[in-house]
Amino acid sequence: MEEAQCTSLSPPLSLHGQFDGFLWSVAVINPGFCFGVSKLRFGSVLDADPGHGKLPLVSVQDRDHKFLTKAVEEAYRGVECSDGGPFGAVVVRNDEVVVSCHNMVLKHTDPTAHAEVTAIREACKKLGKIELSDCEIYASCEPCPMCFGAVHLSRIKRLVYGAKAEAAIAIGFDDFIADALRGTGYYQKANMEIKKADGNGALLAEQVFEKTKEKFQMY
Amino acid sequence: MEEAQCTSLSPPLSLHGQFDGFLWSVAVINPGFCFGVSKLRFGSVLDADPGHGKLPLVSVQDRDHKFLTKAVEEAYRGVECSDGGPFGAVVVRNDEVVVSCHNMVLKHTDPTAHAEVTAIREACKKLGKIELSDCEIYASCEPCPMCFGAVHLSRIKRLVYGAKAEAAIAIGFDDFIADALRGTGYYQKANMEIKKADGNGALLAEQVFEKTKEKFQMY
Predict the structure, then answer these.
(1) What pLDDT is attached to residue B29?
(2) Which of residues 64-93 of B touch A (CB under 8 A)?
(3) Contact yes or no for B218 and A128 at CB 8 A
(4) Which residues pair with B170 in a beta bridge?
């Protein structure tokens, strides 16, 4: 059996009283690193119920409050367990928590075991599918490019996050965190040599796709 | 025991004859998505040995040829095993293969199990450390943003890849592959709602870092 990468949901820490007065900013990602506000999902809920405009908004906030609280609790829990950095993530489907995970980098000796990647991996295993288009993810902090890539690849429909990357950067984390959603770090700042094969080498590597395309199902 | 995510090194496929005439392009990533050629590692090897200028270059090409061949073989092998898409990756340290892996997305029901992520995870486990600054990675195809993020986080010192993303895109893979290294796709094209907590919600999530910074080792 593979070692569990998520903690079970334990009693909540004493954080709830501090969550009063939630405010939210919402964006829908558009091509080319532009942010828009033209497709807000809870906006359409309000439109559908004009007589009770305030109630659905409060409901959505309460719901988001609840799941983000779990993600923040996971962040603290991960540090208490010495599993990794202070990051948590929760995958939700139909108002139910599918998995609640935290950073497992140290525990698993795995630099890819960020909270979001771990949560996506565990949610897919639990649900028995590689796409989570009926799920949302709540992250305690803005996802780094690796994690946002994983969110994109899993087809998760909605991302809610708490802290801006700068809060993590302030205590020493890599500022590339900020690149996925806002592009304010330096994603490719690594002084790493990158070499691309050309000529026959590139041709051979490219032929892999043409030669195998009949043998696997696109996903 | 966790299920192995890498294949062992089996006898090479009959690809070697096609690798004659390798040509290479090399870049060193600089901040701000700029590519430069000012810090070529094998360039300095040539400078240090002016009397035998050709030999080190051929050696480097042969060496890269050998390891990229393994990555391409892994790509084919992964499809033959129905483990996932046609992508392979090899991590090398001191001229020795640490792990040779392929895409395991279907096998593990895990959308994050790309070849590069799998190879990094397995190499870290094998070497017992979360940073691979003494390693190189050979990828059969240009890494997607998630994978490049993983390469960056693992501190791998050198990346060599074969096919341009367009070869994969041509048979139906997500064009976000091309965004990490060249920014020619649409990394954030997903029509996904992204919501950031503000006010007390953001404050509480940001406090995680300040409140835990003494309890974990930065990495």
Answers:
(1) 53
(2) 64-65, 68, 71-72, 75-76, 79-80, 82, 84-86
(3) no
(4) none
